[in-house]
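Hi all, posting the design record for the shared folder.

TITLE: backbone redesign
STEP: 1 of 1
STRUCTURE INPUT:
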């Protein structure tokens, strides 16, 4: 008796061969899959008088913009060109450097006034403002008759703060340099605090600048919100300090 044909073995071998052919044919993924989806490039008709080279460059730019939008939608981080990197580095360097320079200038010029207002430096006394002359747009030259708290010292005529008004009398202190008298007490403290509030106001913009320069989108949004809150509060303190510092207290 002849053996029965091995139909099951032939079927299994044919299935394996078909599986090998299907796995090695290198067919591209389906158009609906994430790997095979391509950004839609808008086709702009060629304008009259436009050369083929310009038209191809235009289509290439449109394709690049479409690719970037598609990558941004997928959350793919963009690679910057050397020109973009250089521009971002320059923006971060000059912006951050300017803000830090402003903060340093405000601190170094305002802290001595705060120490005078707190009575830690200077010679205490009372200032009697008798003249304020305008020397320019928004600039005034005010003179005061300064009477020392020490009765052994004679009164002197000296410059005072430009926001003073003729006829004002307020407690003041002669600066260690001896060329100006400045208000002490609450008035002088509020003036110094209002100026120092400019420091956090400027520094609040440093994190958004850095996160924008390094293309950290999520961190940029968070730093922008936090920086906006800090800048708003600092601006309020600055305005309050300017108002209370210019008042006669």
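Okay, here is what came back for every position:
SEQUENCE:
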């Amino acid at each position: 008796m002849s053996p029965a044909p091995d139909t099951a073995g032939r079927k299994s071998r044919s299935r394996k061969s078909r599986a090998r052919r299907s796995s090695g044919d290198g067919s591209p993924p389906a158009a609906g899959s994430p790997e095979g989806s391509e950004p839609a490039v808008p086709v702009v008709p060629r304008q009259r008088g436009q050369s083929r080279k310009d038209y191809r460059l235009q289509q290439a730019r449109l394709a690049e913009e479409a690719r970037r939008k598609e990558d941004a939608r997928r959350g793919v981080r963009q690679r910057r060109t050397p020109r973009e990197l250089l521009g971002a580095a320059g923006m971060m360097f000059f912006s951050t450097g300017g803000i830090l320079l402003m903060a340093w200038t405000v601190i170094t010029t305002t802290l001595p006034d705060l120490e005078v207002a707190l009575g830690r430096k200077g010679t205490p006394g009372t200032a009697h403002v008798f003249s304020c002359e305008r020397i320019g747009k928004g600039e005034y030259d005010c003179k005061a008759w300064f009477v020392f708290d020490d009765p052994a010292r004679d009164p002197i005529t000296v410059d005072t703060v430009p926001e003073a008004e003729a006829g004002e009398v307020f407690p003041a202190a002669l600066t260690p340099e001896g060329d100006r008298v400045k208000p002490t007490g609450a008035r002088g403290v509020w003036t110094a605090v209002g100026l120092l509030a400019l420091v956090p106001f400027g520094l609040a913009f440093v994190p958004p600048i850095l996160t924008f320069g390094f293309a950290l989108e999520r961190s940029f949004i968070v730093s922008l919100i936090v920086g906006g809150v800090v800048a708003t509060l600092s601006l309020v303190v600055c305005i309050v300090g300017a108002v209370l510092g210019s008042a006669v207290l």
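COMMENT: The two ends are 126 Å apart (CA to CA).
Let me know if anyone wants the other runs.
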